[in-house]
Every structure is written in structure tokens, then in C-alpha cells.
Amino acid sequence: MAGRISPQDIDAIKSRANIADVIGDYVQLKSASVGSLKGLCPFHDEKSPSFNVRPAQGFYNCFGCGEGGDVYKFLQKIDSLSFYEAVEKLASRIGYTITYVQGSAPNSDGINRARILEANAAAAAWFQSELSSAEAETGRAFLAGRGFDKAAAELFSIGYAPKGWSGLLDVLKLQGFNEAELIKADLAVAGQRGVYDKFRGRLIWPIRDTSGATIGFGARKLYDDDQGPKYLNSSETQVYHKSQVLYGVDLAKRDIAKRRQVVVVEGYTDVMACHLAGITTAVATCGTAFGDDHIRRINQMFGTSSDGPAEVIFTFDPDAAGQKAAMRAFEDSTKFIASTFVAKGPDGLDPCDLRMAKGDSAVVQMVADRRPIYEFALSQKIAGHDLSSYAGRIAAARAAVGVLVRITDLGARNQYLRQLSEMISIAPAEIEPLVAAELQRKRAADVTAARRGENTFTPAEQMPPEPDDHVEFEEFIVPNGNDPATRFELRTLEALVQVPQAFETELATRVLNGLFGQPSLVMIAHAAAQSMAAFAATNWVATIAANTPPPLHDLLRSLLFAKLPVATEDDLMAYGKQIAAACQEKLLARDKAALIAALANISIETHAEAHSQIQQQLVEIENQRRALKDSL
């Protein structure tokens, strides 16, 4: 459907969505302070949480990398979407029907993200219904041969794509989809003989994101005359980015967070076998190597290292490709906020084959018998060396010290050094100089990489501290942050954006229009004064942001996410009222000073009536000040 999304719909969708729920699909959020949630930032690598969300105001901010904005900005950044695509994704999530304004398109071809998701959902339903057809007997036999019954197929929504040329294409056309949309969704292919189904004569696994939306498909070859690859996955689309996808994450995410464990297997059937055996934290990549984006997603589901120990358990095939993947996982092991392990089945069986051969309990035992990845890597490094000769043992030691230097815990490093010593029959004293030399080489390489600007993962102990109080905010955003007047202005704006309901509307208007002097804060106060129609409403901060010059957006977010000295919602309101009272006191004092100055310039003999009126106003101000003090 072509057309620009109406501004009314954009506002309505955002107001109905809970930003914490949306971000919670990507980041495990924990309560941080009153009205604020915290988790690991999904936009940069960190082991201590600096990513904050304020659901009531609808904003997020990371004090580590500076990313921040509203729910649309988050979706744009996390899923590489355009603004309109982010709106469509959020609308699809909450079941909101968008009204398009004719005359312009959300994207160049008029095919939006929501439409692709609708096509995927319709395709998944049709594939699943086709699994019960007579033609799909081969597919059902394949599943049965691997220990998967009808209930298992239904749990994972497995389907079947018939052999025909355009079965899915014809069905979805009847449902209102056109060829361009189905090609864009990678469900159909345009060839010399016309448009035809991408998946034909194959078992189909729908691939879903954390919210449960079908974003792509994996298809397994069933017939000998199929000249395609064994597994055929969806290509990159507006909704499917394979470097970020983990198959099974929709089923596993809750238990991953709860048990603080993830089991990484190599294929769809391995994920099925693990889940059916009770290992409900199993996931797999989709036709690509395990990479940094996958690591970030897993770390985000774990939460933070302070939540307790977590573990990532890899299973790999015993062939050369599997062993290479295992060593690549070892190289990346320090990027996790978890301990890493390798689980190997007896006789090299993967989880699916092991379950078929020995049952569910054997899969559970395989995971329970996991080995630390460092121990596995040591075994791999010394494999192939002639340990019967001294020269061979020294060569094995030189190959293995690269594993030891990656262990940052000195106690654990010494433990594995002794283990290596026993494995190759060389005294620890002979291995220690090799470790020292490798450490020196590694440090030099890290320095060189840093100078080149290469991406490195900073250990937690070297991470810059998170801003933890107002003074740090002031030093960062205001040059004269130690000035008492500026400090009071900061406190006032923090309270106005975080707890506006503590201020009467008339008072807030006076404060915003006349109480600020620091130039940057004056500009934000002016933007807030322009936004009074939304005062204390759910879109209060968003309206201020719309009226604030973009260079000051970071400053506005720092005010919104500043930590206030409160512990409960009641404390928050009380704090806001204290700030409001202090503002009122300042305004009354300013009014009093102005009246006294005016009084000094008026002669009582010639302007007796005006003099009397000013005196009455001064008395009224004093009464208000006394009443204000009595109320505190």
C-alpha cells in the first residue's frame, strides 16, 4: 500500500506502545530508580549497564555511547529501518491499522515492512497446512525418521512447500498480495519463465524474531532431483537480517533470561531436539557463522553480570568445519558476559542424532557434561603434535599459550597452565616464559590495533564509569556546572521534565518564561514554554524535544535521565513539590525586589495611591511566602 502515514497515526501509535515492552524484546531491563529501567546497551559492547529507559516519558538514553531517543528512533537503530518502517513495525506489534495519505510512499517501491510481515505470516500458515497433504508424506517421513511427531511439528510450526511452480504465489495472490510484494518478501522469484515460488518441494521452518513475528524461512531439501543446496534460507529483506537472527529465540528467550543459559547448536533439527528434551534455551544461527551481532543479542537477554553467573554452551559437529567454528567461538569467548563451554555428544553425535539414538536423557547429559571452552581449545591446539618427543611437546606448548593469555582471571590462567603442563608432560616453569612472551606480543598487537581504530572489546574493569550524580552531568553539559545558580536551574528543569505534575500549570509557565539564565537551559526552557499545551501529558517530553534545537537534544535527555535523590514514587512527588516551592520562593523574592525598587522611585506625597498599592502588593507577597513556608 502506497502513501505517507498520517501524523495523527504516528502520534497515536507511539502513545499506545510501551517503550519498555518494545525495548524489552532486545534488552533485559531491570528496575534502576524511580521511573527508570536499566540494561546493557544494544548499540555498543559493555559489561556494566549504562542504558536507561523511562517508560512514562517514552525515551531511552545510553550514558556509555550517547545513543538516545524515542521508540521510533530505537527501532530505526536496532533493526536498520527507515522512520516509516519503524512506525509500521510498531503499528503491527500493537495491532493498529495505519491510515495512509495518498500521494507519497513510505519507501521507493511502496512496499512497506508491515506488508512483508503479513505475507510471511500468510505463507507460514499455508506451508503448515500443506504438511498434512498427501504430497507431504516425504516431509512427514523425514521428520518421523528424526524422532519428531505431529505435536513437535506443530510446536515449531513446520510446514511443507509443494513441488509445483507457483502454489504459494497463487494462494497469496488470492489473499490480496501482488507479485512485487512477494518478490520483495523473498517468497517468490522473477525468472525468465516468469514469477515462481522460491521454496518448492521442501520442508519449511518459519524463522521468528523475539516478538514471534515470522521474518523469514529455512527450507530443507527432500528430493534427489532438487539441484539446490541442502538448506535454502530466506535472503536479506526489510525484515530478515541473517547476521542478527537466532532460530528458536522466540521460544527460548524467557528461559535464557530465567536460567541465564543459552545452548548454541548448529541446525533447526538440533534446536528441536534440545527443546523437546527439556533444553529450552537452545538456539541456532540461520545459514551464517556465529558473530558479534549474535553475541550482543545473547548478552542483552542475559542482562548484566551482576545478575549472577551465566553460561553459553556451544555444540559443534566433529568435522573440520565444526572444529573451525569451535575455535572461532573460543576467539570470541571474552565478548560474552558469561562463561563459555563446549558440549560434545558421545561418538560426535549432534543433539538430533543423539536424541534419536539414546533418547532425551542423553541430550540433557551431553549439556550437563560440558567442558570449559578454554579446556577444549587447549586440546585442539595440542592435537597433531608429537608429544613423544621434547621438541614436539615444546611446539605444542607454543601453540597452546595463545589460549592461556586470553584468560584474564590469573587464578584460572594458572590452573589451566598446570593442566596444560600435565597434558604435554612439560614442567610449568618451562611454559611460563612462553606465556610471558605471548602476553607481551598480544599487548603490542592491541596497542597497534587501537591506534588503527580497530574494533576491540574493552574489559569491564577498563570501562569508563557511568555518570552517577548531578555534578558529573553538570561538568559534562554545562561549562560552569559548579555555579549555584546554574545548578539550581538544572535541578528545576530536571524536575519539570521528570515530574511536571508537581507544578501548577501557572507556576510552570512563569518558571519557564522567567527563571533561567544559562543560555542552553534558557533555550530548553523556551521550548518547554512553547509546549505547555502538552504539560504533564504523556507526550510532554516528546513535545519539548520537537521544539528544541537538535544540538540540545543530548542535554534534554541528560535532564530526563538525571538521577534524582528519591527512592519511591511518593518521594519523587515530594521532591518535585520541593523544587516547585523553591521556584515559587525565588519568583516571589524577585517580585518583592522589583516592588521595593519601584517604591523607592515613587514619592508618597505626589503618588500616594500608587505608593499604597505597592505596599499592599508587598504585604500580599509576604503572606504568600509565609504560607509557602508553612506548607513545607
Overview of the structural elements:
This protein is of the alpha+beta class and 632 residues long. The protein folds into 5 domains: 4-101, Zinc finger, CHC2-typedomain (DNA Primase, Chain A, Alpha-Beta Complex), CATH 3.90.580; 113-240, Alpha-Beta Complex (DNA primase DNAg catalytic core, N-terminal domain), CATH 3.90.980; 242-369, Dna Topoisomerase Vi A Subunit, Chain: A, domain 2 (3-Layer(aba) Sandwich); 370-458; 470-631. Helix content is 52%, strand content 12%. The chain has 27 helices and 19 strands. It has a 6-stranded mixed β-sheet, with helices on both faces. A 5-stranded antiparallel β-sheet has the order 2-3-4-5-6, with helices on both faces. A hairpin with a 5-residue loop joins strand 11 (202-208) and strand 12. Helix 21 crosses helix 26. The longest helix has 32 residues, at 569-600. 40% of the residues are buried. The model is unreliable at 454-479 (pLDDT under 50).
